[in-house]
Amino acid sequence: MTENRTIIIGGGAAGLMAGIVSAQGGRKTVIVEKNPKLGRKLYISGKGRCNVTNNCDAKTVIANTPTNGRFLFSALNVFSPADTIAFFEENGCPLKTERGGRVFPVSDKAADIVDTLRKAAVRSGCVFIHKTAAELIIDSGAAKGVRMTDGSEQYCDKLIIATGGISYPLTGSTGDGYRFARQAGHTVMPLRPSLVPLETEEHFGYDADGLLLKNIEIKVHDTKKNKIIYTDFGELELKRWGLSGAVIRSASAHMKDMEPGRYRISIDIKPALDEKTLDARLLREIDNFRGGTFIDVLASLMPKALIEDFAKLCGIPSDKRCSEITREERMRIISLLKAMTRTVSCFRPIEEAIVTSGGVCVKEIDPKTMQSKLISGLYFAGEVIDIDCYTGGFNIQAAFSTAVLAAKG
Fold first, then answer.
1. Whole-structure pTM over 0.70, yes or no?
2. What are the C-alpha distances in Å from 287 to residues 78, 181, 221, 280?
């Protein structure tokens, strides 16, 4: 019996939310998830805290969605960030808003977000099948069900693909949804990492590997267009192979058509101080350490783990006496503190990306229902669609909004 029956492939953020709304709407709802555990990617999001949404309006979400943001207009009007916050609060998971509107569970535990979704899905009547979907069952231009790898079949009159992208494959995001979309005749836009760390031509030493620099500012320069394309303020992590951290992941979303050497990142370690103020401070530190060395001065300005790399960039002998530092050398120190530059060679592997850029072409999906324009009864939700947002809770919100719209149909 397939009438009034919905099958959802994927038990992550989008799949669970779609299941809840579908079942609450009176439809028999089955969620097919190949992992024994639901919401595996949610567990590691936000460094294990789960930045579940952003406390903002729909317009702000769209502005923070560089790829096909306007496609989300109807979905966000149906299920906004305020609706997400209300859903979790009403289901016993209190939330809090932090810097930049980022919303987290008060407990700081991503597991609480997953548990809330799972319990709501169970209460609403969702049935879970922990098997791997092999292919869609399509007949006469309509989605009719799913065939599993073990040969068993599940039938429906409405099928939602909410399988996620290909980032973090250990969580089960292995790109199955793109294969299903192609089977249905859909175009899958080229896949690339987004919100991903960056490899650079210049390498840091072992001491600096993993060092977290807080309250820094970065500027991304596109040498091809000869202009600054992005600036940000926040945390940055130094790696042996390059750069990571929130500001770097956000910056990566702006780097289109990546090629070695095209993008340069300038890091301002002291953004609160202009060059004149920084020079005055440097002079005070030199005076304080008059009997010491150049390294003693650097130790008062930056984390110990960065000193060796910074000293090499300055080209000043580490044992040089403070009293012997020239004005030219002082200007060199200030220049590097305000703009330590790294040349981007490439993105890190897509497996390290937070989200996948690319996916099912939005021109082939009805933005008012999330239904396929090619196959009736087939819907898409979440990261499998060609939309990706900046960091800050926007990607999970996009997953929830498209899922609710797909479930309502």
1. yes
2. 63, 67, 36, 11
